[in-house]
């Protein structure tokens, strides 16, 4: 095996581990909430803590790799990940579990951007398209199989093994990183923007905490207080950004209409779906009495729809443009969520199948189009800076979507009870998912149309 494929294998193993940790643990949340005696909105921090750790370490990953080398960074990240997943499985309290999930996110967040950069630098031109296909395949396979496997583990054993089963993969990735990745010498580096990182982390963490506390059995001022702290930290970063020459998040890039619209779409589709899927897991298991394994099987339908959408986007993006695909994705995705509103019992299985298929196709169209469109306006160093914003947005959309939908369900449950609260939450989520249509009333810049081939020119010129 050549060196570049060895690097690719290490990256793909780490990427696979990251994907399954987001979706596999979600199926176990009802069991975790029951065993550790926490509410539905509180247990979401099992996912939030992991994603928050990922988000905070991503901006520092490039500096750490430059300072200590890719080999040491990747190996250390997987060893840290291994320690964290083992401790997650041994956690005796909910706060202990959340802490180790945060540490687990720090480990995973180091491997993904560093491994991706090493891999893509070794694959150029048409070869990069091949490795991108493998990355997309992992991104579809992991969400498809991990909820089913996680559900089977929960049904047959314990939610703790959902975390322990990651250990062989992470240790293999650590060993291969140390054995296969070449040692590099550190070069001169600018000092990282630690103050900016702390302000961004405090803003994101406070907003998530405020959404989680709202409507629960907490002091009345707890939730709005956290939200105000989050807003204050965000304003503090905006002020810091104007004074800092090497700010960790380059806010000026948000003037790009393609990037800002793609960010909005990601919150409305993958972000909203994360919250809807979490509500659906509790609804299906607690109200309709589906097993954890059966609940996980529905993600196969979602992944199948997303796969079809990925193929369609690759073929029609240049012909239709981002705006048309965004509108189609938003409508299909919200139609799938609205279908869940009509589900009242386990006998409505066909409706659940239709809902997940529609959400998969619509979500796949929207997410793939956003991924393609987001960095279209940038080149050179701006591409890397835009990538930092995009990856932070991508991770935080999952957490904010889940926190927002759980907050809505928490408030409605206090007045309506279950399952009426879930039904109304699905309806509200469908409406939230359509909000970007207001921004799409203006036409987005279209990509240049592909030049016709010689064969196509001859065909156009031939007499009919």
UniProtKB/TrEMBL annotation:
Gene Ontology CC annotations of this record: plasma membrane
Membrane topology: Multi-pass membrane protein
InterPro entries: MFS (IPR011701), MFS_dom (IPR020846), MFS_trans_sf (IPR036259)
Keyword Cell membrane: yes
Residues annotated as transmembrane: 7-33, 45-65, 72-92, 98-122, 134-153, 159-181, 193-215, 221-238, 259-284, 296-317, 324-343, 349-367
Domain Major facilitator superfamily (MFS) profile, first and last residues per copy: 7-448
Compartment list: Cell membrane
UniProt-recorded Gene Ontology molecular function terms: transmembrane transporter activity
Swiss-Prot/TrEMBL keywords: Cell membrane, Membrane, Transmembrane, Transmembrane helix, Transport
Protein's recorded name: MFS transporter
Source species of the chain: Pseudomonas chlororaphis
